[in-house]
Design a protein that fits this description.
Shape of chain B: elongated
Structural class of chain A: alpha+beta
Oligomer: heterodimer
Strand content of chain A: 15-25%
Helix content of chain B: 25-40%
Mean pLDDT of chain A: 83
Number of domains of chain B: 2
CATH class of the largest domain in chain B: Mainly Beta
CATH architecture of the largest domain in chain B: Sandwich
Number of helices of chain B: 8
Largest interface: A-B, 102 and 115 residues
Mean pLDDT of chain B: 89
Number of helices of chain A: 14
Distance between the termini of chain B: 34 Å
Order of helices and strands of chain B: EEEEEEEEEEEEEEEHHHHHHHH
Radius of gyration of chain B: 24 Å
Low-confidence stretches of chain A: 218-225, 268-281, 322-333
Largest sheet of chain B: 8 strands, antiparallel
Largest sheet of chain A: 6 strands, mixed
Amino acid sequence: MALTPQQKIALIRAYAPILYFHPDERFVPVKPSAYLQASSLWHAQPASDDKKRWGKPFEAQFPRFPLIPRNGISLDPTKDTEGTADTDGDGFKEWFLGHKDNSTGIYPYLSSNRERELWLDMAGWQDGDEVTDTSKNQACNVERAGARWSDEANLKAARNYYSAEVMDIDNLSRLLISIFSSNGIDVENMLRDQFGDVWAIWYYFLYPVHQEYLRRCEQFFDKESDGNYEGDWNAVCVLVKKPATFPWDQPNPPFPDPEYVGYGVRLRGIMDQAVEDTTLFRQGMIIRPWMETEKLGQHPRVYVANGYHNNYSRAGMQPPLNATLFGLQIEKLGCGVTEGVDQIIDEVKDTWSDVKETSKDVAVVVAKIAAGAKIGGLFGAVVGLMAGIAEALSSSADRERTPEEWKRLEEEHGPEPQRYGLILTPPEVPLPVKTNDPDPAKNDTYKSIEIWTGDDMERLVDRDTQLWWPGTDKRPGYNGRWGLRVQKDPMERRSGITFPDFQRAFLNDLARQISKTPA
Amino acid sequence: MYQMILHHNYRLGQAVDLSGANQHGFVTGTDFEADGFAVGSGALVFKQASARVRIPKRGIWDSLFALKIEVWVRVDALGARRNLVEGDNSFAFAIDNQGFLWGTFHAPEVSGGPLVWHGASSQNNSPDGLSQKVPLNTWVKLSFIHDGYASLRLYIDDKLVAANYNLIAGVPPVGSAGVHIGNWTLSDQYTFDGQIDEVKIYRYDPDEAYMQFFCRNLDKQSAPCWQHLFGALEELHGQQQLDAFIKCIAYLQVEIIRAVRSKGEMAIAENEKLTAKYRELWCEGNIDSAQMRAWQEEWLRWLKGVIGTDEWTRFERRFEECLMSTGMLDVFTKYVDVAKCDPSFVGYIKSFIDVYNVKGA
């Protein structure tokens, strides 16, 4: 029998996570509906990082304008005025996000694909809100985003928020069939064999901005970061085996301990060519058996990496994920230095299909030839070739990358153990820190502790009525990006993301976890 | 140079891909043993004619070039060809009816020739002249390594048992029937007889060159400089000569590497040693040091020696043709300048020019 909303809320409250942030963290999870209503809605036709493809009018002329101006999005169907009226008197005319074009049957503010892509603009670009023939539009505006969520009263009140969803085995079965029927493995049976029936309880977090600290790159360029984007989703999942008697049935047994916790990590920029399903592989979940997690009661402690908002089961620096499982996008290592030539190589390599796999070797060789030619003319070019060939011969060596090489790529800064910034906690755990040790050095330090905000019913995901969750063939929902597009972003590192497919990532990684180690 | 794209361990009898590349497989017609080459490691038992693990064709199999396969198997019986892993119209790794190990791929065997299945076997291509068979009724690791350029080598328990250094093509894309483990791609034939515990497959790592190039610590001055250089190339794009030049260099580079790796195991081993030293110096940033100059001298001497003077000269001429026919030498000297912002690289190039002139004289 399907769970009632009250039963779902009971489960959500029982396992609600405690989030520990880094002291330098600038952004906290916010309410998705508030974020949407504070944004403007743009489209690109087709999807592109070229501003000529953005917004209205459709002719290639500037300035360009959004489909819906900032603060104009309404989630109320009674305000479906298409911008002709300010029905609530807040100074902004309203456009209903779920508006349907009756002549075509299309939802113009929800349907998004590569031919016509939607994206939200919450705080504009670093160089302003406008898209003109001279505007750069190359980076999101981190400062302004921070200011909006700390200064505007309605947004400030929408901070420290999570949304939550409960899936039971029937929901999971439908999902599993859709995911794995084309992939071969019988994960449903694997899960049933391991656990019987389960609940998967999801906690979703939307951050106004993702700050990606490319540490080596910080040394290179006169800007703090090169991978920031607006609208950053992440998630935590708790997998619970259904008990014989539910906690809400007589004699009201306690909620069972979970089996696993999935910690959402954004694998942004994973090599597209390495995996076909980039949606799945850009979102990863680190799965930990419950006994290996840190928790207070049945509430998992989750340590949030500064700026990245990736979730971890342990505090402190986070080494890169197992490189034999996930190949970090190498362009990240190059700090965007090669983006230009990558685009060229991508376009021309199909004309030399039999050796196209060596295309990045070629890019390095050509760069060295070019540099050598400038230094030493023809001789310089020849030794540039030699220098490049040395690189390529090294690439051809019979080796695999060492863990040490991968470690150098990138590390994330979670809060150090016992040295926290903000802590967001459920009301059941009002003091999620150690403060009573006679030795003060052994006590936790923290900037502040705040209780999750929001109404339980409101935070419960309802995909039938809450338009901001991704739509399907059967149900309308917002499928666009949650942050603005930026120019010169061919690898889509600095443009907002769509709502990630956490569930697929979780089930896929859970299957791997179960296969690797005894449950 | 290798990037893992598939890793099955069959611990629970399912073909779950642990590599992260999402290459899960369909398991059909097999039985399951809880113990494989280790207690509790799990293994699939291949006895029925239809027994196989099928990995559907996905985009990742379109770009292989190099291919490395490792399988842990226990062979119960021969009497027919026993397929280990086969990619439709691309590659095959099998044991023949006498127990010899075979590795083949579908590509031209000679320049301009038709596509044919060819490769190496432990019967005909043994490096020591002694044919080697796969042992029966015991767990054994079997490996197939095609380097993408010139060599295909086979190993039994990490011992080289077959090598062919005369290849002229990489491994082609896998066809629509996908990859099959323990059976043929097109029908129930060549079924493996025994147990398979683990399979790992790797391809050419397309990012290896960037990995190496950027392991050197650039700085605030040099990084934007190289970005400008790559950006300048981008600005040139659209000019036909740049496309032509890139293509010209792509083939020349492959041929030079092929020339080295076709010279056999000693040349491959020496390349490993020299390039390891190069990576160390480059990544440490010692690129204009005396050690790098010594490396340049040693490497250039070795490279010319292993390739041969005549072939070396031909490569030089072809490179000059690439530059001159496309007019790119003029373009590069006008557009690109790293001299002012990466003095170490300038030192590296100037040292190379000195070494090259001395050695070339």
